[in-house]
UniProtKB/TrEMBL annotation, chain A:
Keywords: Transferase. This is glutathione transferase. Residues 81-205 form the GST C-terminal domain. It holds the Pfam family GST_N. Gene3D superfamilies: 1.20.1050.10, Glutaredoxin. It is an enzyme of class 2 (transferase). GO terms for biological process: glutathione metabolic process. InterPro entries: Glutathione-S-Trfase_C-like (IPR010987), Glutathione-S-Trfase_C_sf (IPR036282), Glutathione_S-Trfase (IPR040079), Glutathione_S-Trfase_N (IPR004045), GST_C (IPR004046), GST_superfamily (IPR050213), Thioredoxin-like_sf (IPR036249). It comes from the Eukaryota.
From TrEMBL, chain B:
It catalyses: RX + glutathione = an S-substituted glutathione + a halide anion + H(+). This is glutathione transferase. Keywords: Transferase. Residues 4-82 form the GST N-terminal domain. GO terms for biological process: glutathione metabolic process. Signal peptide: none annotated. It comes from the Eukaryota. Residues 84-210 form the GST C-terminal domain. It comes from Adineta steineri.
């Protein structure tokens, strides 16, 4: 039995996907959350002085994508063979492309500028990524409600997680995307996820 | 094994395609290396699953988009992605760390048109980003390597090839970066340059602008 510790700030951010994978797989982990004030005293304990970090049996892994993929594979949420895993990775990368464009907005301090950037993102940037995700779902899903094959994978969990943030800023973001809305609903109703979502701390990001 | 069962579509450039070509070369895997100029892109774009390149196409016509997904897939097929899940994850961590730096260069330095601003961004990139990155790569190698040469364990992985390719590409674009990597990656670079399959590929590959 491996022991898992996840280190991050007290927010969803880049760690929530890992938390969702643990929950979906019903696996125990130590959910260590540092407030920003305590972070500086722990910084040099982390391989790249960043978080999230996953500690598996004493080995520390940085990089949120690497962590999530590792956990998904450990707990059979990553696709059943190499090719399925590649399809999952392709959806994950496509979601990540959208969020790379979103990131500067998240950290923009000028409020007026930020509002403009948000408007521009939803009107001009996000639609093509959502379309791409629909293309992939059509190619890789088996006509069902999950991105790949007929089973929940971490691609579905990641899509749920990032759209949580986006819908918080624009509740109409998925209005023209029926399948994507249904995919979210499917994730939300998985019993362990539903329970977790009811009780988890609220955070904007 | 006929080369017709695997097709790799990308521009006639290194950029986001070269890593996969290097992995396939290291693996001795034959494939159709389909390269096109920007002028031919309008012909290819509608045939690509997301209208982007690179794309890997299997014998049955299924297409995979996303350069690092493709690279990871072919690396796994070739046994260049670690011997267990944890090794694969360490490799992914090195890849993601290198990717972060490449993306910083491509978003902050490369597109800057204003000469003065570009020089500023480049200086910042070299003094801050690259310096920190070399430190970070050193830390990861210390934590994950078993032989002081390869990044993870004691054999070649696609993380080694990605760092190799990224350093080469950066050296070509920004010769000033030369001294910044020191001697610590020399054993790795020598091993890769000396790998028979890779050497054959490097000697034969077309010279491109980037």
């Amino acid at each position: 039995m491996s022991t898992y510790k996840l280190y991050y700030f007290n927010t969803r951010g880049r760690a929530e996907i890992a938390r969702l994978i643990f929950i979906a797989a019903d696996q125990k982990f130590e959910d260590i959350r540092y407030e920003h004030s305590e972070w500086s005293s722990h910084k040099n304990e982390m391989p790249l002085e960043q978080m999230p970090v996953l500690e598996v049996d004493g080995v520390k892994l940085p990089q949120s994508g690497a962590i999530a993929r590792f956990l998904a594979k450990q707990f059979h949420l990553a696709g059943k063979d190499n090719f399925e895993q590649a399809k999952v990775d392709a959806v994950v990368d496509t979601i990540a492309d959208a969020m790379t464009q979103f990131l500067p907005i998240r950290f923009e301090n000028d409020e007026t500028k930020q509002i403009e950037m948000v408007k521009n993102f939803f009107a001009n940037e996000l639609p093509k990524h959502l379309q791409n995700l629909e293309v992939l779902a059509k190619q890789f899903g088996n006509g069902g409600l999950f991105f790949i094959g007929n089973n929940l994978t971490w691609a579905d969990l990641l899509f749920y997680e990032v759209t949580e943030t986006l819908l918080g800023l624009n509740k109409n973001a998925l209005d023209n995307h029926q399948w994507l809305k249904q995919n979210r609903a499917e994730v939300e109703k998985q019993p362990r996820i539903a329970e977790y979502l009811k009780n988890r701390p609220k955070s904007q990001f | 094994m006929s080369s017709g069962d695997l097709k790799f579509y990308y521009f006639d450039l290194q950029a986001r395609g070269e890593l996969t070509r290097l992995i396939l070369a290291a693996a001795g895997r034959s494939y159709e290396d389909i390269r096109f100029g920007f002028d031919k892109w309008p012909e290819y774009k509608p045939k690509m699953i997301l209208g982007q390149a690179p794309v890997l196409e299997l014998a049955d016509g299924t297409q995979l988009p996303q350069s690092l997904t493709i690279a990871r897939y072919v690396a796994r097929e070739a046994g260049l992605a670690g011997s267990d899940n944890l090794e694969s994850a360490k490799i992914d961590a090195v890849v993601d760390t290198q990717k972060d730096v490449n993306e910083t260069y491509f978003s902050k330095v490369f597109p800057e048109k204003d000469e003065t601003k570009k020089a500023e961004e480049l200086k910042k990139f070299l003094d801050e980003t690259v310096t920190k990155h070399v430190e970070n790569l050193g830390k990861l190698k210390k934590a994950y390597s078993k032989d002081e040469k390869y990044f993870v364990g004691d054999k070649l992985s696609w993380a080694d090839l990605f760092v190799f390719q990224s350093i080469q590409a950066l050296l070509q674009a920004v010769p000033e970066v030369k001294g910044k990597f020191g001697e610590q990656f020399k054993p790795l670079m020598d091993a890769i340059n000396g790998n028979e399959n890779i050497k054959k590929y490097l000697d034969a590959r077309p010279q491109t602008a980037f």
